Amino acid sequence: MKLLALMILPLIAAHAQNIRVVKFSESEPFRMGEVTSRRIIHPGIGAKKTTLNLSVSRNGAEFAQHVHDYSDDTILVLNGEVNLRQGESLHLFKTGEVAFVPTGQIHGTITAGTGDTTMISFQNPPDLILYTGARDSKKAGNAPPKGDITPGAVKYVRFDKSNGEFTNAALGSKRATGSRYLLKKGKKFKTVVEADGEQVLFVWRGSIRVNDGTKSYTAGERDTVFIQGSAKLEVVADTLSEIIQVQAP
After folding, report:
1. Phi, psi at 106, each rounded to 5°
2. What domains can be seen in the chain, in order of their start residue?
């Protein structure tokens, strides 16, 4: 009996560790240009396939132009409006819109409108250099970014018009799928994470419970549920809730 218990305990511990709730208060700041962002999901907590960052940017502030050498970048405007900058070119996108930036494309943002703009972004796979400041082209001593500015390469779509996917392989996002869910109280959806996959459930507003069959995890506004490895989950809204899901297979 004692031997059986010793064999089961590591399995329980491993299961518990592959799902965690990351509070927004646990996020860490990093600066690019004139914008200080928060890294929520990142390699520092073990992420291997995706990141999640949140920025609140004042009017006119610039997130410095940069390039991800091996990562795709997906940027969602949750509130406000912002210009995506590529060289001297500006493209305005607003609340409810997303920009998908493929690997190698030069890009940055300049906040537009009259107030603060809230954005989240995720890179697939993580760009380890981004958080060091070495990609900050506005930082004294750093060189301008070297990369491509290809007309039409950056894709702009809406994410707020329906429940379900907004970026996927059909759009060119082959390393991750982004989805949005707006759930009334008590409504739910099911999701699966593969053995070598990662999934992020970011709560933009409201509160959710995530059940894996043995345990329930609660996440409130701006909290994130981070899953690594095999899991079958049911996501339930405790109140009217909006969730952004990132699935990196």
Report:
1. -65, 135
2. 17-21+175-248 (2.60.120.10), 26-164 (2.60.120.10)
